[in-house]
Structure formats: C-alpha cells, structure tokens
Amino acid sequence: MWFAPKIATVTDVLLRPAARRAFGGTARFLAGVAIETIFFLLLSPIMWVGHTLFLGGLLFGRAIGWIGQTRDDHAVPLSLAIHNLWPQTVLGLATLGVLAATAPAAIPYALFIAGGLVLAVPLAVLTASPALGRALIRLGIGRLPEETSPPAALRALALPSIEAVRPRPD
Predict the structure, then answer these.
(1) DSSP per-residue letters across 28-97
(2) Which residue, 30, 67, 100, 121, shows the most beta carbons closer than 10 Å to its own?
(3) Residue 168 lies in a domain
(4) 136, 108 in Cβ contact below 8 A?
C-alpha cells in the first residue's frame, strides 16, 4: 500500500524518455527516488511516535494551539532537535536494547522502525540544513518537471525557486 504508487510512478517515468529528461535525467531521478524512499522509511516511525504522544496528551488534557509553519530557510539547532525528539530517540534505543538482550537476530528487522527513531535528532538537523537543500538543488536531486521546463504561468511569476534551478544535461 505504501509503495505501490511510488513503484507505478517510477516505472512510468523510467519507461518514458521525455519524462526522465523532465525530472533531470535517469540518474538524478533514481537518486531522488532513493533519497526520498530512505527519508520516508526513517521519518515514518518518528511521525508515528509524535502523533501518538500528541493524541495521548489530548487524552490527559493537554492544551493545543495552532501556529503557522516556518517556511523560510533555517537550520534546526541540535538543542531544539533534542528537546523535541528525545522521546523518539529513547524509544528507539530502548527497543534496540531490549532486542540486543533478548533476540539479537531480530535487530536487522527492527531497524526498519527503530532505526528512524534512533536517528530522529540527527535526521532533523541534517534535513533542515539550508546548505544540504542548496547542494541537492545544484545536483538536480529531487527536481520536478516544472523546474526543468516551467510552464508559462510559472515563468511569468519569476519565483526564486524556479529561477535558482538551472537544469544540467546528463
């Protein structure tokens, strides 16, 4: 269920040369798919725990508020990542600790969930890095067809994100 749409899309793009070029070429497209898949596998358990903690807090009367998303480039300081993601990290380490003591052979399988939890803090810091984002843009990783060949309506807006992307041939 999780991967069927991705597999169908990847197959479709790989079978059409024009689509591969629109995504920046075969190598860039496959690199983007690999990076996004790894990110998804690491992020999903982090979000599951975060949602569970949020809903559990509601059951115990925790007040909630709504703030707007921060969309500007900014780094996530290590201290903020630790403050917000320590429960995920502790749960991941505890899971791996229990498995190491009781069923070490299960650790490789548990890493699909516990690995993301253990890496929650460095993942937040790394993926929020504006320098990493700029590097991926320069490499053309994660490029969309609208960046490679923007439609007239987007070109007319002269958006910085579109202007910053300079498609490079394979």
Answers:
(1) HHHHHHHHHHHHHHHHHHHHHHHHHHHHHHHHTT------PPP-S-----HHHHHHHHHHHHHHHHHHHH
(2) 121
(3) no
(4) no
- How many Cα atoms sit within 13 Å of 34 on the Cβ side? 7
Question: Are 20 and 26 in contact, with CB atoms under 8 Å apart?
Answer: yes
Q: How many domains does the chain have?
A: 1
Residue 170 placed within a domain: no
Task: Print pLDDT tens along the chain (170 aa).
Answer: 788 999 999 999 999 999 999 898 999 999 999 999 999 999 999 999 999 999 999 899 888 777 777 766 688 999 999 999 999 999 999 999 999 999 999 999 999 999 999 999 999 999 999 899 889 888 888 888 887 778 888 888 877 767 666 555 55
CA of 103: how far to CAs of 95, 97, 114, 157, 169, in Å? 11, 10, 14, 57, 49
What is the residue range of 38's domain? 4-63+71-163
